[in-house]
Amino acid sequence: MIDTNTNTNIRSNASSAALNSNLDTVQTDIKTLVRDAQSLLTAAASLTGEKAEEMRGRGMQLLDQAMGKGKEYQGQAMVRGKELAHTADVYVKDNPWRTIAAAASVGLLVGVILGRK
Fold first, then answer.
1. Where are the domains of the chain?
2. pLDDT tens-digit series, residues 10-41
3. Would residue 95 be called left, alpha or beta, if left means φ above 0 and alpha means ψ between -120 and 50 degrees?
C-alpha cells in the first residue's frame, strides 16, 4: 500500500522547488526590466524633444510591464501559499502526534541553542 502522506510530501517538495525556481526567474526578469527602464529614463533625461519623449515612453512602458509581472506573480504566490497552508493543515490533522513531536523537538533545539549563549 502506498503511503499518501509520503506522496503528498513528495509533491509538496517538488512544488516548492518549482516555486523557488519560478521566483528566481521572476526576480531576474523584473530586475532586468527595471534596469532597462532606468537606463532609458536616464538617457532620456539628457535629451529633449521627440526622442526624449519616445525614450521616456518606452521606459514607462517597461516599468508598467515589470509592475504587471510583479502583480501576476504575487497572485500566483498567494494561491500557492494558500495551497501549502491547506496541505500543512491536512498533514497536522492526519498526524497530530508527529506534529507535536516535531514542534517539541524544534522547541528543545532552540532552547538548547539559546541556553548556551
1. 4-116
2. 555 566 666 667 767 777 877 787 777 777 77
3. beta
